[in-house]
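Sync notes, pocket subgroup
Present: LS, DG
LS reminded everyone that the earlier model was apo-only. Rerun requested with (2S)-2-hydroxybutanedioic acid included. Inputs:
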Amino acid sequence: KFLTMAALAMTVSAGAVAAACDDGEVVIKFSHVTNTDKHPKGIAASLLEQRVNDEMNGKACMEVFPNSTLYNDDQVLEALLQGDVQLAAPSLSKFEQFTKQFRIFDLPFMFKNIDAVDEFQLSETGQAMKASMSRRGLMGLAFWHNGMKQMSANKPLNLPTDAAGLKFRVQNSDVLKAQMAAMGGSPQPMAFSEVYGALQTGVVDGQENTWSNIYGKKFFEVQDGVTETNHGIIDYLLVTSTDWLDSLDADVRDQLMTIVSEVTEARNSESTTVNANAKQAILDAGGVVRELDATQRDAWVATMKPVWEEFKGDVGQENIDAAQAINA
Ligand code: LMR
């Protein structure tokens, strides 16, 4: 087994146990920000790693760096372009610098559930989005699901007016900033790895995320409760650099792409269950979950949906219509 000093140093600094790669194997470093075993993305990344290392032994070798140990999402796309890592799976909200097309996925109440997101992504329009950043050097390989977003704060949130004046952590996305402003909240963009500390110390009052992220990073422990708003989605693009992809031998690329699509199909169909389990785990741990009645839900929709108007030009009315047709 051959491990360069640079790789060793990186492994140590990342605090991860890296698989030692054989000389001549294509090294695939995959950096992400969630845990590995109770999260739709973490489980998918671990399965991908296991299958590549089993089935492509001698040709390729994958090392996953989870939990922001190597890069956070603000850094990882640059690291991909520099060739420091070969795979990443940031949420679709994190591609602001590269494309405005993905803004459709951040618009509140655009998709009624993850099945609707899946259908949209598998459409011709959705599939074309994977290559939409190729001129900028990024190539999407697959959409990976997480789930529906919920809202939490340091006080009960039953109506959107309860959020007025509160500071909410958001991913760095103009749509999400506009959404929080529509509720009268103050949006604070921040890396995922900093959210727990910011909630705990009161730098922000609240946040929005999926059950698996709220559970996986223990946000519920430092919030009054979580309101089941299902107001938006978090999904990912498994992404690489066009340069790296083009540099692979065709047989290596084809085998890798086959494994990627099999892992995608297997894990995407489980993402809703993983999130349901995380919600249950929050309840089991004594966390508070608040449900909305129909009138309350209508109020959230009425407050947030006007945000669409501002971003219609970026995402295209025809795409909004296509998404809405899937919901119907
Ligand atoms: C976030 O920043 O809240 C999420 O994108 C983290 C993740 O990867 O699920």
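DG: The radius of gyration is 20 Å.
LS: Residues 8-17 have pLDDT under 50 and may be disordered.
Action: DG to write up.
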